[in-house]
Amino acid sequence: MLKLTGKQKRFLRAEAHDMSPVFQIGKNDLTEEIVNEYVDALSKRELMKVQVLQNSSMTAKEAAAFIEEHSEITVVQVIGKVLVLYLPAEEEKYQRYSTNLQKAAEN
Q: Could you tell me the pTM of the whole model?
């Protein structure tokens, strides 16, 4: 898990503000396979939202803890039932946020 500064988290929260959730956590809750899907999705987008549905037995905080425990994903923010997830991309062509993250830390 990446340790982000307050400024970096603010930058990522601002970038994620207008995004819609890409995945939903429902009554089947989370498994390691699902978390691996998040890692695959983040390898191409770096930043995304996940929504915890009403019928899930997990709270958003429990989901955040499970994701961070079973992957390298950083949970940037939990607002209500929505998680903001970040994972720096390996491939340069997908590094839309990680390159700007360094600048955000320096400003």
A: 0.93
